[in-house]
Amino acid sequence: MRRRTLPALAAGLSAAPALAQPLWPTRPVRVVVPFAPGGSTDVSTRLLAPRMQQNLGQPVVIENRAGAGGTIGSDAVAKAPADGSTFLMGTISTHVLAVGLYGPRLPYDPERDFVAVAPTVLVPICITVHPSLGVTDLAGLIALLKAHPGKYAYGTGGAGGSAHIGAVAFLNAIGAEATHVPYRGSGPMLTDMLAGQVAMCFDTPALIAPHHAAGRLRCLAVATATRSPLMPDVPTSAEAGLPGYRAYSWFGLFAPAGTPASIVTRMNQAVREAVLDPANRQRLEEQDLPPIMEGSPEQFAAFLRSELATWVPVVRASGATAD
């Protein structure tokens, strides 16, 4: 089993203090997923919900409220009553990348309008090429891109998403240029990748693994600290010769600002127990949604600040917008 640890959450962990049984919750708890059903955010939330419900003693109701890259559902929760009745399963897209994409048009502030409750999973991004490109490792791809600035195109599931920004960070790290081809989702992008219409792509191991195994695509590196169990032969970016390069998404639970600390602490404990549950961990791992094993509300808030400082400048420099 892999243990995923957010960079800012790795140290100084301590057990939550024992609390007297609080009155909350006295009614069902709603968790808004700001994306359509069936995506990784939705899947992981629904997987964790039964264990959270067992801990809380009340139903945990999942509500999908998709639109505008997750910002519609996020804004709804930001404006919901701060009474522990409503939470948001936020992501790097809703709470970090959206700041750079929307600028002053973003209808909420990720720090001011929310309380960080608990992180759940960290999803890796991998670098993949079509075999016709003729490269077999990351060093070969880097050499090719640097030798032919702007000649090659890469696909992602959409402009401004974690895969696109991860690609921008990769090109910045190696000092090369390539043309971005954004698609309306990973499915259409994968179709063109398999047909050789784009030379390379950035997406999750879960999407790429079957085609890598069949030789239809060649994954060169996974941009997180550990290898993917779906493609154990693929090195991490550090192992492939690019230490320090990371690309990923993450999910985590947020509450409206002003939610009482006792509720935030109780919900953090419920999420932690759900993530630590051995059966849940195994199911998450099998879908390449590796769980984040640590994270108090304070540590998750500190991690969010770090992520904003790291990625918002990259988004703005990329020129990507929400239009």
Write a brief caption for the model:
This is Tripartite tricarboxylate transporter substrate binding protein. The chain is α/β, with parallel strands linked by helices and 323 residues long.
Structural commentary:
- With 323 residues, the protein is an alpha/beta fold.
- The protein folds into two domains: 29-123 and 249-318, Bordetella uptake gene, domain 1 (D-Maltodextrin-Binding Protein, domain 2, 3-Layer(aba) Sandwich), CATH 3.40.190.150; 126-222, 3-Layer(aba) Sandwich (D-Maltodextrin-Binding Protein, domain 2).
- The chain contains ten helices and ten strands.
- The strands form two sheets. The chain has a five-stranded mixed beta sheet, with helices on both faces. A five-stranded mixed beta sheet has the order 7-6-8-5-9.
- β1, α1 and β2 form a beta-alpha-beta unit.
- It is globular.
- Residues 1-20 form the signal peptide.
Write the layout of secondary structure elements.
Layout (H helix, E strand, L loop, with lengths): L28 E5 L6 H17 L3 E5 L6 H8 L7 E6 H11 L11 E11 L1 E4 L8 H10 L5 E4 L5 H13 L4 E4 L3 H9 L5 E4 L1 H9 L4 E5 L25 E9 L4 H16 L1 H9 L10 H22 L5
Parallel strand pairs: 1-2, 1-3, 6-7, 6-8
Antiparallel strand pairs: 3-10, 4-10, 5-8, 5-9
Proportion of beta-strand residues: 15-25%
* Mean pLDDT level: 92
Return the CATH topology of the largest domain.
D-Maltodextrin-Binding Protein, domain 2
* CATH level-4 homologous superfamily of the largest domain: Bordetella uptake gene, domain 1
Q: How many beta-strand segments?
A: 10
N to C succession of SSEs: EHEHEHEEHEHEHEHEEHHH
Radius of gyration: 20 Å
Low-pLDDT residue intervals, each spanning 5 or more residues: 8-21
**Largest sheet: number of strands, sense, barrel closure:** 5 strands, mixed
Any guess at the CATH architecture of the largest domain? 3-Layer(aba) Sandwich
- Write down the oligomeric state: single chain
Number of helices: 10
Kindly report how far apart the N and C termini lie: 40 Å
Overall form: globular
Helix percent reads 25-40%
Q: What's the structural domain tally? A: 2
